[in-house]
Amino acid sequence: MDKTWMQKNRRSKEYWDGLQKILDYAFQNSSINGMILCPCKECKCGVCITRENAELHLKVYGFVKGYTHWAAHGEFVYSSAPKPTSHDISHGVRDELDDMHGLVHDALGIPEQDHTRIDGTEYKSQLPNVEAEKFYNLIDNSNKELYSGCKRFSKLSFMIRLLHLKCLGKLSNKIFDMLLDLLKETFPDAMDGLPKSYYEAEKLMKELGLGYDKYDACPNDCHMRWHTEGRTKDGNMRHPADSPSWQTFDFHHPEFSQDSRNVRLGLASDGFNPFKNMSSTHSTWPVILMPYNLPPWMCMKQPNFILSLLIPSPFAPGNNIDIYLKPLIAELKELWDVGVNTYDASRKENFQLRAALLWTISDFPGYAILSGWSTKGKLACPVCHKYTCSQHLQNWGKYCYMGHRRYLEMNHPFRKVAKSFNGAVEYGKPPGRLMGSTILDELAGYSIKLGKKVSDNPELPFNWKKLSIFFDLPYWKDNMIRHNLDVMHIEKNICEIIMATLLNLEKTKDNKKSRLDLRDMGIRS
């Protein structure tokens, strides 16, 4: 049957005419009480509906993808050979549709002419013991009549027809098992020797080469290559793949970047109390991986998150988080060095899938735990590093961090607005980017102890409290950006403080101590 019209616009005359013809065919050949299984994208041949509703569904939703052979609506491919006569059937000759002997021989790759029976018990040649047992059992089932005197079905062909009905009717495994139990109670002789459950029937199908292997595959034709093949490349930032950090990684590791299916990952972690406001002290830290190969509307969706670790503890893990991260780091190293054999369903080929971790995402306290740089004290800024500009506020008793205007252009007007900032004109230049090789040089030769306090490693330089375990990854030192701050945390905290200060709420920063510090700094009287 011509089905080219199925690809045309559903509002076109060709589509409407073709739909009427194929519905005529379906209702003539496979209707059940005036209804057929609806082949639309929503019903997927799982619901029986009337012709009027079938027309409506197929005009609104269209046909289910790939349904071009109408097997559920009476369309079969018959052999051109003549149908067997009643004399043939009486002598055990079956038609082409039930050629069980040929199916068994094809499934096991055994030429049919080499194993014809001579005296009813022996074959011309021998097979290996395991294969022989499987082969002879299947041949026997294909020869056994379903019941005494039945010439239409063998034990094997009847079970295949039952499984065919299960697929067409979308019967659940439980309903199929109940059907087998009913048939066994009603026709015990016929069901003798047949599988007693769908589980046993499925094993039979695998022996016949009709089984299947499960693969994890993308239902959207591999969006995993989207970052290379589907992304708009016009210089605008829409996705991490547009960032200099991603492109720098590709430059340093061209072999990895050549295969767009290799996975780029981001790691996010934070602590929370699962008991909410209860008095129980607890801190649970999930460690979540996100695949950045996907487009932006998919990579941050919950179904695509990978929960790699869950660290429950009465306290935050602190420096000890590296102990819990060791299994994950070991797997990431294996995925980088060796990879894992993976099946690409879109290209129908196996390939060695590799993965790399680009960066971490956390709030500011979490930044310290993951990076090893303390985000407290005189040198708290992880970007300015040892060049952090800070001032201790005598009245407030905390550090105040200055010097952020040096990151502006040299002619920016804010550099000269002293009173709105720290009371001084800014002439400084921004410090250089902190490279991974610099960190390794600074911490070379120091012994690192894991612990929860900065003072656990008092001999470490500057604000370092450990060398992060992420440096065990061979590519980590070359990453342009290793740790990111979660913007939502920062926005929420700043918004709370501004609103509290404007409305004079509990968290306000406008109090006597802050006004005395402004006076001492020469900003306000």
SSE topology sketch:
Elements: H1 13-29, E1 36-37, E2 48-49, H2 51-60, H3 86-90, H4 100-108, H5 129-143, H6 155-169, H7 173-186, H8 188-191, H9 198-207, H10 226-229, H11 244-252, H12 254-258, E3 263-269, E4 283-291, H13 296-299, E5 306-313, H14 321-337, E6 340-344, E7 349-353, E8 355-362, H15 364-371, E9 389-392, E10 399-402, H16 436-443, E11 483-485, H17 487-503, H18 512-520
Parallel strand pairs: 3-8, 8-11
Antiparallel strand pairs: 1-2, 3-4, 4-5, 6-7, 9-10
Helix pairs in contact: 1-2, 4-5
Rg computed from alpha carbons, rounded to a whole number of angstroms? 35 Å
Mean pLDDT: 81
Give the N-to-C terminal Cα separation.
91 Å
- The sequence of SSEs as H and E is HEEHHHHHHHHHHHEEHEHEEEHEEHEHH
How many domains? 4
SS element count, helices: 18
**How is the biggest beta sheet arranged?**
5 strands, mixed
Total strands: the figure is 11
Strand order of the largest sheet: 5-4-3-8-11
Overall shape: it is: elongated
Class by SSE composition: alpha+beta
**Percent of residues in beta strands?**
5-15%
Unreliable residue stretches: 77-97, 114-128
Q: Regarding quaternary structure, how should these chains be classified?
A: single chain
Kindly state the percentage of residues in helix: 25-40%
Structural notes for this entry:
With 525 residues, this protein is of the alpha+beta class. It folds into 4 domains: 4-73, no CATH class; 97-207, no CATH class; 238-364, no CATH class; 383-433 and 486-525, no CATH class. The chain is built from 18 helices and 11 strands. The protein has helices spanning 13-29, 51-60, 86-90, 100-108, 129-143, 155-169, 173-186, 188-191, 198-207, 226-229, 244-252, 254-258, 296-299, 321-337, 364-371, 436-443, 487-503, 512-520, and strands spanning 36-37, 48-49, 263-269, 283-291, 306-313, 340-344, 349-353, 355-362, 389-392, 399-402, 483-485. It has a 5-stranded mixed beta sheet. A two-stranded antiparallel sheet has the order 1-2. A two-stranded antiparallel sheet has the order 6-7. Helix 1 (13-29) packs antiparallel against helix 2 (51-60). The radius of gyration is 35 Å and the shape is elongated. Mean pLDDT is 81; it is low at 77-97 and 114-128.
